[in-house]
Amino acid sequence: MVEPLNRSAERAMPLGDEVAKWFPWWRQGTVTFAIGAYPGAPTRFIFGPNNDPCQNNLDARLRISEIRFANPRVSRDAQPSIMNQAVRIRHTRYDIINQWLPMTTLQTEDSLQYTGDSASSVVHLPTPYYLQRGQTFFMELQSLDAAVASDIITVALRGKDPINGTPIVMSKQVTLPVVNGRVPVAFDDNRDSGIRDMLITDVVFGYERVNTAPTSLDYPHYINVRFKPPTGPLWTENVWTRLSGLCSYWGGVDAAATYRPIVIYRPKTPHILYFEEALKIECLQVSDLGTELTSWCWVIGEQEGTHVR
Amino acid sequence: MKNYLPFAQREITPVLAGGAGQTGVPTSVRMDSMAVGHQGRVVLGDVNVYVVLADGSFAGNRILMRMGWLSKGYLLERRLPVGAFINKGRPLVSTWSFPRPYRLKANARLRATLNAGETTARYQGIMFNGVRCEDRRPMMLYDGNEAESTALLPFNGMNLYAPTDSDVELYSVSIPEYQYSRADNATAVRIWGPGNREWFKVQPYVAAPAGMGNYTRWIDPPGDLIEMERHRGWEVDSDETLLIEYENTTAVNAVIVTTLRGSLEVDHG
Question: What distance in Å separates residue B71's CA from the closest CA in chain A?
């Protein structure tokens, strides 16, 4: 277990030891269908450099609380999208879905997308993260499309004081770099008010552009993110994750008859992955509309903080 | 053991126009679980109000409403715009979260039919999100059809059976349908539980008001939701009748489709 640096006998850990024991964890997988891939063979989502399934390589338990699917297509019928895909999921010990099921059938959540002129998206952390005073919370953003390069992004850490529950918000503004460039976002003591003890629950991204194409709802697809928390295990083993898969809420302006298809499956109790257990997630394209298609899958949950980087 | 059977009830009500900016004719609709043949406690989850104006225009917030109980009167003195009651967005994908989990006994099964109302053939399926009661492991009950179709499809496969070694608690049901595709052509869903008891007491293929297409048994009504109470719903006796009064202050007549969804409390599975 990771001991908080500033912990003393007088200051009880907030929310019990769970906060110090469990840390956010997620992985992004991809699958690409070539033109004319229909009728196709089942294709597995790839989560690592060696065609890996989503495997637990940590000496710790993983509690999987969400599986998400998306791709960048904006229209349902003009282009292939997750509306035209089927999915199968197998846990090392049991079947989760053992027959082809329409990917969108996995949706278990209510409204994800909001259309308005305040463009933002929100990452709800799978479990709160305990940031302690004096520490630096570091993250990086990467722009993936020229359309968002040089746009200003406001990043806000939202959370609460671990002792008395007072809400805390800290924010930074950064300018997105050229395509594939990266920009650091550092929340540290080099500012008017230093870092206080804080339970981070959400990370909010506010966007500059609203209604010029591509619309503000495209931002999450065009930004990669990685977090570098000061203590505890890394959340993503230092690899990039596309923001769209992490956001539980997208707000912004939409064009008529377009939407950003994303599916969120949230089991009521977590799927547990012990060491070397894996989720094998397979995908099938059920129609071919003449375009190469890449789909993404995100497996999101918590890792037990018994291992330290 | 108490169990909670999901139910939905729908009423289609013509509401005459009062004229632009003028007072309309108050028209009330009564919704209660007696209509689905139940006597006992009931949990009212949410209400959906879907307005169709005769000329196809948007009503904006010029349809007013208030709610109350037949036995106790209305909760408000006057009617307010429907938007003043709405507190929850319409899901992007059709998902219905039940106000209470429904427990399906070991070995029991569900079955369903889906009639995709969309013009584009689509791969169809249904999924119930649940948890095994024995070990709290997540478990889905589901069935899919491996061909694109707009035809009426039965779903009665092996994966809609509860396992032999455990009951399953079900929390929601989903079908593959995106909201914007539903305005004109609705996916008709029918679901049967053990003993062939049907969940929805709605006419299967109602001749729809103009502009609505075939307004049928949807899991998910077409529009934002009015939740009775954010987390747990309103718990009442089944002889309590929910009274909703509408007033149409537009210049054209309207048809208002009211959908009530909830759970019936029973002493068996």
Answer: 33
Q: Is the peptide bond before A214 cis (omega within 30 degrees of 0)?
A: yes
- Closest approach of A31 to chain B, Cα-based (Å): 20
Question: How many CB pairs lie under 8 A apart between chains A and B?
Answer: 110
DSSP line for chain A: -PPPTT--TTSPPTTTTHHHHEEEEEEEEEEEEPTT--S---EEPB-STT---EE--SSS-EEEEEEEEE-S---SSSS--GGGEEEEEEESSSEEEEEEEEGGGG------EEESSS-EEEEEEEEEEEE-TT--EEEEEEE-STTTTT-EEEEEEEEE-TTT--EEEEEEEEE--STT-EEEEEESSSSSSPPPPEEEEEEEEEES--SSSSPGGGGGGGEEEEEE-SSSS-SSTT--EEHHHHEEEEEE---TT----EEEE--SSPEEE-TT-EEEEEEEE----SS-EEEEEEEEEEEETTS--
Position B134 scores a pLDDT of 95
Q: Which among B90, B142, B157 has the least Cβ separation from residue A105?
A: B142
Q: Which of A106, A131, A112 is nearest to A20 (CA)?
A: A131
Q: Do residues A270 and A63 make contact, with C-beta atoms less than 8 angstroms apart?
A: yes
Model pLDDT, residue A6: 39
Interface test with B, best of A107, A250, A254, A262 (most B CBs within 10 A): A107
- Given a cut of 50, the residues of chain A with pLDDT beneath it are 1-16, 76, 78, 257, 309
The complex's ipTM works out to 0.84
Who among A105, A261, A286 is closest to B126 (CB)? A105
- Show residues of chain B in contact with A100, CB under 8 Å: 144, 146
> In angstroms, how far is the first alpha carbon of chain A from the final one?
12
B125–A286 C-beta distance less than 8 A: no
Nearest Cβ partner of B142 from A97, A267, A271? Answer: A97
CA of A268, closest CA in chain B: separation in Å? Answer: 6
By a Cβ cutoff of 8 Å, what residues of chain B touch chain A? 88-95, 97, 120, 122-127, 129-131, 136-138, 140, 142-144, 146, 148, 157, 159, 169, 171-172, 174-178, 180-181
Q: Give the minimum alpha-carbon distance from B131 to chain A in angstroms, rounded to a whole number.
A: 7
Tens-digit pLDDT profile for residues B87-112: 877 666 778 889 899 999 999 999 99
The predicted pLDDT at position B205 comes to: 45
pLDDT at B204: 44
- The string of pLDDT tens digits covering residues A77-91 is 545 577 778 899 999
pLDDT exceeds 50 at position B266: yes
Q: How far is B16 from B37, CA to CA, in rounded Å?
A: 31
